[in-house]
Amino acid sequence: MKRRKEIPLLSLLKRWDRKYFDGKLPTFEVVFAKPSQKNAHAETTWYPDGRIEIRLEPYLAAQGRLMAIVLLHEVIHVSLPKNAKHGLKFAAARRRLIRRGAYDSLL
Ligand SMILES: [Zn+2]
After folding, report:
1. pTM, rounded to two decimals
2. For strand 52-56 and strand 29-32, is the pairing parallel, antiparallel, or unpaired?
3. I need a surface site. Which of 1, 42, 56, 99 has the fewest CB within 10 A?
4. Residue ranges of the domains in the chain?
């Protein structure tokens, strides 16, 4: 059973969308639940019905900055086509976020 936890992520996600993704992020859900992939701390799933879900390991809920770093990685995935994985588009998007200062308060 999925463990869901209400935390004030919404304002953070809205700010990231506005500042780093030009307000173009698709709608997605964030849940704290064990990723299906072994040893993964997080994963993003595109469901056949169009829903997008970011799943974060529950321990991350208490790890503010670390959680934000992991979540931002997954949000990059959400901003790209599913098949982008960790290829050139992902690397370019990550570089753009670094240039825009997305990691300045995280690293
Ligand atoms: Zn990834």
Report:
1. 0.90
2. parallel
3. 1
4. 10-100
